[in-house]
């Protein structure tokens, strides 16, 4: 087969209409062979071609006779010296880090390991078996797609509502989706799913990892899988597990069509990405890609014993962000998903690991500097999971401008408040107000806080109020996996119950969480399935459960249907009330031109909170008066924003209380809008100075109705 020198850029396999340029980075390799396969069933390559040129650290060659659809891998030659960080083994086919489609997934076999499994020397031994029959293979593709007039919704952050979802789990059991499409990108773009998302009122779907990943061998041997997908092998290839297409090339097109369809519905697509580690694990892991291409370049190794890996993720390894080519890999991947796949943003798993320059977390690390300077990536939504498992890795509030963060402190505080913990009320007020203690000093806004009560990692909302203890027995690890993360109150009864009183209390607690979430300043994120009252039967770490434990159940009884309607109403309330989604932090001081403060924190007596009130650890009830005329902000056109004045009453007490209603602005009454409890049958409005009965652990939202407003409503 003909081979020409080609070019060292772009990296990967690039079809130009006449042939394919292959380019691969390896700093310490001696030579590289391109291996072409005729079919996914082939046990060996049909052609082995040494890349003829090396430009600095990039091996490259151009094959004019290769076309899209070609399967390929590499054999990389160099020293096998684990003690010094080198693990080259040309007996192993390795996957192109820039593979845009996976033409064949791996099949677990001992030959995939660079060392002899069972050898007393473990990874210091050398395995000579050929991995070609079992190794994953890349496929050359043509990137063309008819995007037409695809337009990004570009919802501003303060008008963003995120729905966290798993591509398969969302639709696998959805009866309105054709069975052959369920669990796929095509299903996510189907009319029933889009209708549900629109009725729910969300503006963005945050998809759990869709980069091609590996199912860990120990899970496969137990009949399980890495269902969540946080075990990435290929950072450019959409996972074919979620495709109904017959070929890898069509998988790429199906993903693009999903994005295009969601955009047409006004819904953004945010990807959960895992650049902190790869699927190759620790020193005893397989040789699938990076390890065999240049282990010492791609991974953070222990400085005084380079046989081992620095592990800030708990997954065995950490990518080496100090290497400019590793940084380039990540940046090229991100830009590819934005420019070629049209996604709208990213949520970075264990993002603190990306900031580690040496050992300590550096929030101004190279990765963030490059992101900020990039004309493409600086314009999309960037969300950090602001922690990793290393020392000093908990960095909530410490990420730089342009970044938003999963606010773990919000989650924990809200759970503690509704558990009736003492002394939580001051922090609870701060979290409701957008967590200014975390974000204001760095010049960020309330929308830097991604607020959530539950997410994929932990209990569902249904289980949060139903279980005291995790029940992860199905994971096969003796219920030792998964952290205890309840911090809630489950009425003293563990698991499912038919007791109507207990069921009613749990439903109220769920409504408290939802109403708190959508009445808080910041960006709300709803775990997909919480609106359906989905249960994982107490499993708070269902990462390996590709079954009904994780798949959303769309068959709703009356209880679940009513809760879905409540969630829809809570989201609608947020959309209708500008004071609930401000761009600036609450000040609590008099707003010029209005003569009133934008927020007043109230005690149950209806008076502004005093220092003595705030310091009373046993008192848990709180009122938040948000003045609709004192928002102190303008819209995108520069017009001052005005809205209703809202009174949010939260009773975190384990007992009923009475809350005295404050004065509004001018003559008028307080009108009941939404609550975690049923409204009184006899009335919907109360005058200032009246007291409102509140059940234990309950939330009420009221709106101020001026007399002028009532006359306007009646047509007077």
Provide an overview of this structure.
It is a single chain. With 716 residues, the protein is α/β, with parallel strands linked by helices. Among the domains are: 12-139, Immunoglobulins (Immunoglobulin-like); 407-576, Glycosidases (TIM Barrel), CATH 3.20.20; 585-714, Immunoglobulin-like (Sandwich). Helix content is 21%, strand content 19%. The chain is built from 16 helices and 29 strands. The strands form seven sheets. Strands 12-13-16-17-18-19-20-21 form an eight-stranded parallel beta barrel. A six-stranded antiparallel beta sheet has the order 22-23-24-29-26-27. A hairpin with a 2-residue loop joins β5 and β6. α13 (500-518) runs parallel beside α14 (558-576). The longest helix has 19 residues, at 500-518. The chain is elongated. Mean pLDDT is 94; it is low at 710-716.
Low-confidence stretches: 710-716
Q: How would the global form be characterised?
A: elongated
Number of strands: 29
Tally the helices: what do you get?
A: 16
Structural class: alpha/beta
CATH superfamily of the domain at 407-576: Glycosidases
Distance between the termini: 86 Å
The proportion of residues in beta strands is 15-25%
CATH class type of the domain at 407-576? Alpha Beta
The major pleated sheet works out as: 8 strands, parallel, barrel
Name given to the CATH architecture of the domain at 407-576: Alpha-Beta Barrel
**Mean pLDDT value:** 94
- Over the alpha carbons, how many angstroms does the gyration radius reach? 28 Å
Could you say what the CATH topology of the domain at 407-576 is called?
TIM Barrel
Helix fraction? 10-25%
Strand order of the largest sheet: 12-13-16-17-18-19-20-21
């Amino acid at each position: 087969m003909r081979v020409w020198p080609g070019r060292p850029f772009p990296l990967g396999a690039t079809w130009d209409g006449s042939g394919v340029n292959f380019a691969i980075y390896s700093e310490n390799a001696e030579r590289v062979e391109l291996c072409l396969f005729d079919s996914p069933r082939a046990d060996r390559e049909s052609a082995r071609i040494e890349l003829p040129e090396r430009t600095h650290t990039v091996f490259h060659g151009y094959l004019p006779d290769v076309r899209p659809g070609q399967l390929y891998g590499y054999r990389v030659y160099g020293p096998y010296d684990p003690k010094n960080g080198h693990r080259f083994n040309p007996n192993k086919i390795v996957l192109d880090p820039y593979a845009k489609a996976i033409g064949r997934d791996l099949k677990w076999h001992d030959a995939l390991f660079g060392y002899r499994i069972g050898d007393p020397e473990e990874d210091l031994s050398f395995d000579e078996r050929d991995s070609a029959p079992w190794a994953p293979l890349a496929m050359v593709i043509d990137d063309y797609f008819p995007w037409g007039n695809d337009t990004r919704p570009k919802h501003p952050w303060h008008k963003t509502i995120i729905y966290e979802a798993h591509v398969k789990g969302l639709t696998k059991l959805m009866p309105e989706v054709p069975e052959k499409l369920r669990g796929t990108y095509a299903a996510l773009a189907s009319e029933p799913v889009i209708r549900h998302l629109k009725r729910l009122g969300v503006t963005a779907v945050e998809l759990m990892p869709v980069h091609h990943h590996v199912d860990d061998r120990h899970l496969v041997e137990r009949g399980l899988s890495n269902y969540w997908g946080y075990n990435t092998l290929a950072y450019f290839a959409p996972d074919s597990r979620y495709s109904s297409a017959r070929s890898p090339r069509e998988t790429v097109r199906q993903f693009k069509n999903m994005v295009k369809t969601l955009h047409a519905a006004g819904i953004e697509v945010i990807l959960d990405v895992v650049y902190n580690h790869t699927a190759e694990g620790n020193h005893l892991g397989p040789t699938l890609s990076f390890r065999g291409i240049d282990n010492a370049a791609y991974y953070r190794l222990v400085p005084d014993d380079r046989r081992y890996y620095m592990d800030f993720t708990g997954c065995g390894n950490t990518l080496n962000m100090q290497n400019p080519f590793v940084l380039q890999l990540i940046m090229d991947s991100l830009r590819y998903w934005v420019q070629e796949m049209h996604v709208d943003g990213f949520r970075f798993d264990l993002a603190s690991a990306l900031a580690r320059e040496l050992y300590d977390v550096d929030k101004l690390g190279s990765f963030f500097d490059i992101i900020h300077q990039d004309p493409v990536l600086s314009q999309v939504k960037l969300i950090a999971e602001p922690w990793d498992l290393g020392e000093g890795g908990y960095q909530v509030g410490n990420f730089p401008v342009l970044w938003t963060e999963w606010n773990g402190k919000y989650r924990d505080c809200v759970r503690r408040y509704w558990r009736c913990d003492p002394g939580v009320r001051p922090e609870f007020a701060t979290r409701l107000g957008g967590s200014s203690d975390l974000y204001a000093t760095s010049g960020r806004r309330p929308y830097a806080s991604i607020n959530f009560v539950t997410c994929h990692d932990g209990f569902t909302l249904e289980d949060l109020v139903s279980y005291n203890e995790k029940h992860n027995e199905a994971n096969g690890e003796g219920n030792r996996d998964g952290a205890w993360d309840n911090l809630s109150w489950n009425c003293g009864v563990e698991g499912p119950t038919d007791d109507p009183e207990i069921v009613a209390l749990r439903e109220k607690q769920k409504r408290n969480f939802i109403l708190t979430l959508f009445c808080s300043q910041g960006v709300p994120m709803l775990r997909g399935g919480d609106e359906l009252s989905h249960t994982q039967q107490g499993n708070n770490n269902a990462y390996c459960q590709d079954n009904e434990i994780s798949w959303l159940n769309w068959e709703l009884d009356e209880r679940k249907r009513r809760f879905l309607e409540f969630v829809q109403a809570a989201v609608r309330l947020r959309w209708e009330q500008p004071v609930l989604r401000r761009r600036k932090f609450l000040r609590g001081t008099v707003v010029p031109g209005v003569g009133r403060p934008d927020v007043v924190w109230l005690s149950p007596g209806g008076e502004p909170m005093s220092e003595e009130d705030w310091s009373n650890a046993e008192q848990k009830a709180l009122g938040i008066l948000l003045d609709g005329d004192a928002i102190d902000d303008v819209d995108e056109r520069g017009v001052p924003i005005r809205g209703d004045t809202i009174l949010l009453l939260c009773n975190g007490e384990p007992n009923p209380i009475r809350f005295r209603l404050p004065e509004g602005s001018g003559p008028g009454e307080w009108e009941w809008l939404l609550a975690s409890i049923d409204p009184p049958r006899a009335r919907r409005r109360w005058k200032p100075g009246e007291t409102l009965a509140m059940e234990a652990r309950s939330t009420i939202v009221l709106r101020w109705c001026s007399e002028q407003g009532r006359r306007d409503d009646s047509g007077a």
